[in-house]
Amino acid sequence: MKLLAAMRTYLCLALVLCAVLSLANGHCYQIQVEEGAAQCLDPGDNRWHPLGTTWRNSECMDCSCSGCCSAYGVPTGVPDDCVAVLDKAACEYKVFKKNDLSTECPFMGLVGK
């Protein structure tokens, strides 16, 4: 009986872990580089970058010539009377009251990045 209870506990923990890990991945995409190329094109900014470099583009993506991933987390648990707005200068979301964008709202946490 104790073995069955322990197995159920481990199964529940495994399911929770799988759910949390699926939320931890930020938004990413790959960049195609021609074989033998010395540089790559960032599709977000349409700018060329030398191989081996890293940069942050105007879409708040951290990039290299192999790909780009979001440099920000997305708020979760945002109250219904609030809205999340991406501040591209700071590359972070801010959460405000829908009817008063000068008043910040609390939220549960961030997903991604």
UniProtKB/TrEMBL annotation:
<keyword id="KW-0732">Signal</keyword>
<dbReference type="InterPro" id="IPR008735">
    <property type="entry name" value="PSP94"/>
</dbReference>
<protein>
    <submittedName>
        <fullName>Beta-microseminoprotein-like</fullName>
    </submittedName>
</protein>
<feature type="signal peptide">
    <location>
        <begin position="1"/>
        <end position="26"/>
    </location>
</feature>
<comment type="similarity">
    <text>Belongs to the beta-microseminoprotein family.</text>
</comment>
<dbReference type="GO" id="GO:0005576">
    <property type="term" value="C:extracellular region"/>
</dbReference>
<keyword id="KW-0964">Secreted</keyword>
<dbReference type="Pfam" id="PF05825">
    <property type="entry name" value="PSP94"/>
</dbReference>
<keyword id="KW-1015">Disulfide bond</keyword>
